[in-house]
Amino acid sequence: MRFLTSWSGGKDSCYAMMLAVKQGFVPQVLLNMMNENGKISRSHGLPLSILKQQAQKMQLPLEGVPATWGDYEAKFIAVLKMLKAKYTLDAAVFGDIDLQAHKDWEDKVCEAASLQSILPLWQQDRITLVNEMIDNGIETMIVSCNTAMGEGYLGRILSKELAIELQEKGIDPCGENGEFHTLVLNCPLFSERISLPDYSTKMHNDYCFIIWEDFHKDQH
């Protein structure tokens, strides 16, 4: 089965892809929905340059599609249809764990593009998932988080100990409800670890973000 991965650059989409590969499915392309100007990813605020670096380490093409929230679904379906034809795809792999509304939406857009939706992490225990990711060689860094967690978590590598610390604070250790987002630095799918530009941190509304220096320079 040939598939595309809905690739956020973070741990869940990465582990979902690893599990799909383990089942014998063959990855063809990564899809990331970008913000309107096509410079950073809509979900995790990652510059296209970092996402491209991840794709290059997997020797896969990356499709970065600019979208507003208003035309997001229409653009997503259109690009699924285009990629299905271009890469002869059978399925799309997503990293959602238990948000039913997300699964319903993914099933809907895949059906519109005549693709099967596959969610390898669906309904699995959070701490177990984080431990499995770490045991399976995923190295991932927190790149944004809510103010309840605080700026001090930005740039930290997700470890088993950190997952327990988050859980004890009442924070989902997978960040499934948007408490935090991650960036995969290395995993068995990569030929080598990605290299990161320097960064600073910033707070915006109720969220703390990493601001990537290379990207910041590009804006001036």
TrEMBL record:
Main enzyme class: ligase
A GO molecular-function annotation: diphthine-ammonia ligase activity
Keywords: Ligase
GO biological process, one term: protein histidyl modification to diphthamide
UniProt-recorded name of the protein: Diphthine--ammonia ligase
Domain Diphthamide synthase: 1-210
This protein's record includes keyword Lyase: no
InterPro entries hit by this protein: Diphthami_syn_dom, DPH6/MJ0570, Rossmann-like_a/b/a_fold
Organism: Flavobacterium muglaense
EC number assigned by the record: 6.3.1.14
